[in-house]
């Protein structure tokens, strides 16, 4: 009895190569996987959060326009959270209540609801944007139409 591929080694090699490509294409690093969005979070809420983040809440003053952090505020795009583990609800609470000076990593507190206090809806929008940054669910870098949305 003949074994498959014994007569046509090229076919067997081609099949193995195709299988390898399929397996390689399907392996994605865990942080690149899209997590399901929390209840109530939508693409439009994330987009609005990006505008509020750089606009009225002025989060970019401390965390940077790309949210990768500055001397005044930590990186919001990585897996390192100073408080909690970065769940959407934890981020909502952090944006809503801020970080008092005594708990701040730097000597600067994080103001409740941003530098210019925002509404509950905007708190959730900013939290959705921040939540999306490391999860592949939203914009990772500022879009040209969002830049400059903060008043000068």
Kindly describe this structure.
With 152 residues, this protein is an all-alpha fold. The protein has a domain at 37-133: Cytochrome c-like domain (Cytochrome Bc1 Complex, Chain D, domain 2, Orthogonal Bundle). It is built from five helices and no strands. It has helices spanning 9-26, 43-54, 60-63, 88-97, 120-133. The longest helix is centred in the N-terminal third of the chain and has 18 residues, at 9-26. The radius of gyration is 22 Å and the shape is globular. 25% of the residues are buried. Residues 14-32 and 137-152 have low confidence and may be disordered.
Radius of gyration: 22 Å
Superfamily at the CATH H level of the domain at 37-133? Cytochrome c-like domain
- Which spans have pLDDT < 50 for at least 5 consecutive residues? 14-32, 137-152
Order of helices and strands: HHHHH
Structural class: mainly alpha
CATH architecture title of the domain at 37-133: Orthogonal Bundle
Mean pLDDT equals: 76
Distance between the termini: 80 Å
User: Biggest sheet, open or closed, and with what strands and sense?
Assistant: none
How many helices? The count is 5
Task: Tell me the number of strands.
Answer: 0
Helix content: 25-40%
Overall 3D shape:
globular
What is the C-level CATH assignment of the domain at 37-133?
Answer: Mainly Alpha
Indicate the CATH topology of the domain at 37-133.
Cytochrome Bc1 Complex, Chain D, domain 2
The fraction of residues assigned to DSSP E strands is under 5%
């Amino acid at each position: 009895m003949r074994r498959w591929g014994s007569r046509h080694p090229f076919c067997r090699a081609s099949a193995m190569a195709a299988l390898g490509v399929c397996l390689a294409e399907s392996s994605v690093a865990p942080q690149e996987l899209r997590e399901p969005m929390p209840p109530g979070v939508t693409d439009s809420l994330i987009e609005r959060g990006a505008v509020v983040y750089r606009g009225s809440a002025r989060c970019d003053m401390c965390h940077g326009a790309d949210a990768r952090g500055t001397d005044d505020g930590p990186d919001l795009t990585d897996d390192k959270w100073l408080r909690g583990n970065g769940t959407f609800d934890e981020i909502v609470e952090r944006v809503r209540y801020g970080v008092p000076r005594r708990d701040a990593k730097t000597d600067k507190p994080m103001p409740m609801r941003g530098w210019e206090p925002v509404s509950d809806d905007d708190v959730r929008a900013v939290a959705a944007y921040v939540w999306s940054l490391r999860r592949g669910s939203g914009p990772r870098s500022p879009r040209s139409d969002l830049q400059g949305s903060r008043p000068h």
